[in-house]
Amino acid sequence: MPTEEMGSRILPQPPEVDARVVLTVVGGFLLIVAAAVVGLLVFLKADVPGALAPKRERPFPAPTLQTTPQGDLAKFEAAQHEALSDYGWIDRDRGLAHVPIDDAMRMIAARGEHAYDPLPGSSDPPADAGGGKR
What we know:
Helices cover 46% and strands 5% of the residues. With 134 residues, it is mainly alpha-helical. Among the domains are: 36 residues; 46 residues, no CATH class. A two-stranded antiparallel ribbon has the order 1-2. The C terminus is likely disordered.
């Protein structure tokens, strides 16, 4: 019995799909895609000039505000220190002067509880006083 079954066995069936039909469909699809790409390129070239040109890289310029920031900072700090530690006139006509910060703090502290009262003889505050309206 086993030999009879083996002898009458049917050979595998050939595929039901024809390879030529599959290749024709795939080839047609690729032709349609290629035609669409060519159409888009023609459209871009005609209606959008420069769309297909490579973009030129424009490097960002280097900052040129300060060439020596450490030196500029040292000069600024020296000017600030000089302004806070020297005597000088703000407005000679009105009698306004600036004094070193340490001396000004001692003068304010020496006045005690009346430290921030208006000074005698001053009718109007200086123009750069913080409490005025603008």
